[in-house]
TrEMBL record:
It comes from Bacteroides xylanisolvens. SMART domains: HTH_ARAC. It holds the Pfam family HTH_18. The keyword Phosphoprotein applies. PROSITE patterns: HTH_ARAC_FAMILY_2. GO terms for molecular function: DNA-binding transcription factor activity; phosphorelay sensor kinase activity; sequence-specific DNA binding. Keywords: Phosphoprotein, Transcription, Transcription regulation. The keyword Phosphoprotein applies. This is Helix-turn-helix domain-containing protein. SUPFAM superfamilies: Calcium-dependent phosphotriesterase, Homeodomain-like. Residues 830-934 form the HTH araC/xylS-type domain.
Amino acid sequence: MKNTIKYLILLIIYLVCGVNLQAQNYTFRNVVMSDGLSGLLVNAIYKDSEGFVWLGTDNCLDRFDGVKVRHYEFRGVDSGRKKRVNCITETADNQLWVGNGIGLWRLNRANGQLERIVPEKIDFAVNTLLPDGDILYIGTEKGLFIQKDGQLLQVLTDRNMLAACNRIMDLCLNEDKSALWLATVQGLFSYSLKDGKIDSWHFQENVPEADYFRCLTRIGETLYLGTMSQGVVRFDINKKSFSHTVSLGCDVISDISSDGKETVYIATDGNGVHFLSHKAQQVARRFCHDVSDKEGIRSNSIYSLLVDDRGAVWVGHFQAGLDYSLYQNGLFQTYAYPPLFNSANLSIRSFVNRGHEKVIGSRDGLYYINEATGVVKSFVKPVLTSDLILTICFYEGEYYIGTYGGGMMVLNPETLSLEYFARGGDTELFQKGHIFCVRPDEKGNLWIGTSQGLFCYNKQAKQIKHFTSANSQLPEGNVYEVSFDSTGKGWIATETGMCIYDPASQSLRSNVFPEGFVHRDKVRTIYEDTGHDLYFIREKGSLFTSTLTMDRFRNRSVFSTLPDNSLMSIVEDNQGWLWVACNDGLLRIKEEGEEYDAFTFNDGVPGPTFTNGAAYKDEKGILWFGNTKGLIYVDPKRVDEVRGKVRPIVFTDILANGISFTNPSLKYNQNNLTFCFTDFAYGLPSALLYEYQLEGVDKDWKLLAAQNEVSYYGLSSGTYTFRVRLPGNEQSEAVYQVTVRPMIPWWGWALSVLLIVGIIAFIRYYVWNRMRRLLTSPASAISVSVEKTQQKDQTIEQAEVISEESSIATTEEKYKTNRLTEEECKELHKKLVAYVEKEKPYINPDLKMGDLASALDTSSHSLSYLLNQYLNQSYYDFINEYRVTQFKKMVVDSQYSRYTLTALAELCGFSSRASFFRSFKKSTGVTPNEYIRSIGGTAKEE
């Protein structure tokens, strides 16, 4: 009777508070200037048909893709105040329109520039934009403009263009689109789209600015108007009457919108955001700034508000940037039994799920929940000696709780009493020891893995048997896992190895494992699937599988990029997928990983870290997992449905050498590519997970976490196809093909080949004709010709000898009067090196040999002899060696980190970038860029 009364009371509380109890949890992320935002004042928010979110700030238009912000500037506008974006919208032809303090703008998507539209007609503030197909209604400081079929029509509510009623702040259409409603600073107006008739209504309140309507929205036959001093006012279209709505704690309304059915979304300049129920006329949800709430909105001064098509809330602040609620698709849920229990943010180490009855162990204690009776009870210290629960097992009508450092306790679900396990004889162990696992077998025994061996307990026979490494083949150390397979055989894993319990002989055997098995490894979890294959999760190493008879076994790759030590638990669903929980995410795989899926925060997984062995499939096929941020569950049958709703990935930018491009055919030196993309998840950036492949470079798909761009450097000429997708999800795949053209195009090579062939043909033709003439001439002519030829060859040979002797003589003559002795060369070389290293004259790009000779008090001829004859080096090679050495010193000095390569080269004395690159390559064998990368730096180009 008491339980029934308690349950009824809870039911009444739940029904009364149901709206709040079932309300969606919102976690907000803040975007500010350090994240790329152009300003902290966000005055307009719009989400386009592709999925980008556009933000109007005080001086710029920003595009946000969930990670990065791209800026679109208003060129030619000097006044900062006039740059403030008032409104953003998109027409049916995917044209993006923007209104600011100086007029109307449109985004040219081809060149990424904002272009001014009809400045000769609209050279004043545009406050609101309303699209209807290809028609655009424009509300300005000086009346209404309608753009249709390339024509622009102006409509005035008063003949005096400067009248306050012509200052239109917001617009909306009625249900049948026959009339346009105009919110102005001096009343509400309707404009008939059929006959052009204009009617007006005024909010008759004896207060200042009572008629100042700032924003407008409609649900059915009711208009909701945001005012500057009277809060939100309703207007009944049928009755043509105004009325007040509920108080929101602030009467300055900055933005208002609705879902068109039930909920009005209201932003206030002073008291946050409010969701107003159209039917109940009550606030159903509010978001206000709370300094203690790190996941709430950052300010109560709201300037813009958007609730998008997925229910995410976007909040633009006065001086706090942008807040948006992190999106989750709801595939995974965190278990809660409201209002009495919520596992969110609890680190779940173990649990037992028996339908309506659940026992959950965490790092903060033990929880018992009975949904049938409405009973919820928690057990913490000092009732629990240790509140770190390692294992829970239901056995013979009671729950056996194993703890770390607090022994084992028994929970009676009828009396909810908790007492120590006192049947083991070893009181010290079961009250203060470590209990790692508790498992029942088919014969009614309870097996207990502890820090002091293995126990087998039979409640009916009131017997307990203790196995140790001294009295059995149990490997030494803590007993971490006990698992009984479908044949009744027990697999026991300890800190130093494994053994098998043979039910026939009732003994432990460790000498039955074949060579190459994992019986010497530290195994933490053992699982048998429906195909009777065993899976072993080791503390270090990949997933290991084996048949029950151990005649076939092997290491199995779960995911090519998954660390071997990251596996935590494993469970199979009813569709044949194997779910693997890790310490950095959750996967499902099938057919040796050929089919796979990865699940993140965007799927509802609250945290990436899962706990060891905490995975379970219930009678309905629902999968349950212990996570460091709660007990979560998922219906595997919904995965394909949710995955089918995923937006295809979109490329947000593609860069060549750091510069955006649109033509996919690139020059040979535009070979450093960066691909930027987004899936419009708008969740945690740290939870982003993609896989990508550049065909021709990457052999397999590569995993990318917490990033949305990939770069490749030094690509050779050729055609490349870049692919990116959500892991295992072909439907989300985006493809981009780019060609890096060769330095010499194909037609260049063709011309070269033709030229060579032509030269060879000409030579062959000439030689053939000459030979033919020789063969057809008389013998005397041949004799004379041969003699002449020999005389000619002899003359040429003599000329070459004379030329060579002349060259040598010239060199000898040059230094004849300036020849230096060995000692003089050594002395001059010493003076030269000392002067160059101390005075650094080489930093002067105009340094001449004569200048250097004068500084050394010697002649240019002597210095030339030293360099060319003694050092076997030209003057420029000698000087450039010092300049290259100086560059190497400067490039590792943080003082010069902001300088470009060209600037550094000039500081070192090089007169041009080309001579610098040539000298550097000649001296070091590598280019400056390659040298900087080899020392771990990044070259700063022009």
